[in-house]
Write a structure and sequence with these properties.
By secondary structure, the protein is α+β, with helices and mostly antiparallel strands. The chain has 2 domains: about 110 residues, D-amino Acid Aminotransferase, Chain A, domain 1 (2-Layer Sandwich), CATH 3.30.470; about 170 residues, D-amino Acid Aminotransferase, subunit A, domain 2 (D-amino Acid Aminotransferase, Chain A, domain 2, Alpha-Beta Barrel), CATH 3.20.10. The chain is about 30% helix and about 30% strand. Strands 7, 8, 9, 10, 11, 12, 13, 14, 15 and 16 form a 10-stranded mixed beta sheet that branches. It has a 5-stranded antiparallel beta sheet with strand order 2-1-6-5-3. Strands 4-17 form a two-stranded antiparallel sheet.
Length: about 290
């Protein structure tokens, strides 16, 4: 049950589109613009980083049709049916979209959590030579540009595609990418720069340039540093892939998803590693504390 509304200063206007099979299908049928996607918590009452999602949405458009406070005021009642249909534990996945002309739309679907085995066993991903035209902007145009790759990985049973530029992994097609290298493989002058309890586990790395700076990515970095885990900004050179001990991807709807295979290379020992597990637990606790009321 995906429903879509155009948000105006008066009241939301529900619109009927031909293809309502997915949020991406909805997005393709609207004029080109920008979007942000997130999930709800606490029975559709709270969202992690909602203010940040809206800043990202409103930033590129000089004259939006409605302001962010109006959008927030409309969002909570639109979520009511999802709460009542699916009970107190019912949650939703929300996409807010703004056209380049400033029209604002909200599409909502019931949240479908990934099977537990995805987090317990990890997933397979592949690399593809593809980049966003404007990496810092979450443009709806990229959904159409990546359609062929999306269909390919769906047919092949691959969880995600990693975008590669000049032999370096930047990010996921719908996620951000992190990996863990042994301390000896990083550019540290001395292992004394790293806390003793993480010298054996390694350093968490992620690209910083030429990527979409995901909101979940930012929160995971905060959680890692608060947990005493070293984080370095550096993209993964594919030549160094055999040295990677752990890897994971992050997104608002899926949280932290362990990666155990990249192309034909098994990551580490082929199962989620200790750093990924620690971060996953710490992130879940962080979400419960920090998710803000709509």
């Amino acid at each position: 049950m995906i429903r879509t509304w155009k948000i105006t200063q008066s009241s939301p206007e529900e619109i009927q589109l031909n293809d309502r099979s997915s949020l991406d299908a909805i997005t393709r049928q609207l004029p080109e613009g920008y979007y942000s996607t997130f999930r709800t918590y606490d029975g559709c009452r709270r969202v992690l980083g909602l203010a940040s999602h809206l800043r990202r949405l409103y930033g590129p458009v000089p004259q939006p049709g409605v302001d962010a406070s109006t959008l927030r005021r409309n969002l909570l009642p639109l979520l009511d049916p999802y709460r009542s249909l699916f009970g107190p534990a019912g949650e939703a996945r929300v996409r807010v979209m703004m056209t380049k002309e400033g029209e604002v739309f909200i599409a909502i679907e019931p949240l479908k959590l990934l099977p537990g085995e995805v987090y317990e066993r990890g997933v397979r991903v592949e690399t593809v030579e593809m980049q966003r035209n404007t990496p810092r902007l979450k443009s709806t145009a990229f959904i159409g540009q990546s359609d062929d790759e999306r269909r390919h990985i769906a047919r092949a049973g691959i969880f995600e595609a990693l975008l590669v530029k000049n032999g370096r992994v930047l990010e996921g097609m719908t996620s951000n990418f992190f990996y863990v290298l042994p301390v000896a493989s990083t550019s540290l002058r001395s292992t004394r720069e790293v806390p003793m309890h993480f010298r054996e586990r390694g350093i968490v790395c992620t690209a910083q340039r030429d990527i979409l700076l995901g909101i979940t990515r930012r929160n995971v970095i905060r959680v890692a540093r608060a947990s005493g885990i070293e984080v370095r900004y550096r993209p993964l050179n594919l030549d160094h892939l055999p040295a990677v001990k752990e890897a994971f991807i992050t997104s608002s709807s899926r949280g932290i998803v362990p990666v155990i295979r990249i192309d034909e290379t098994t990551v580490g020992d082929g199962k989620p590693g200790p750093v990924t597990k620690q971060l996953s637990a710490a992130y879940e606790a962080y979400v419960l504390r920090k998710a803000e009321r709509i």
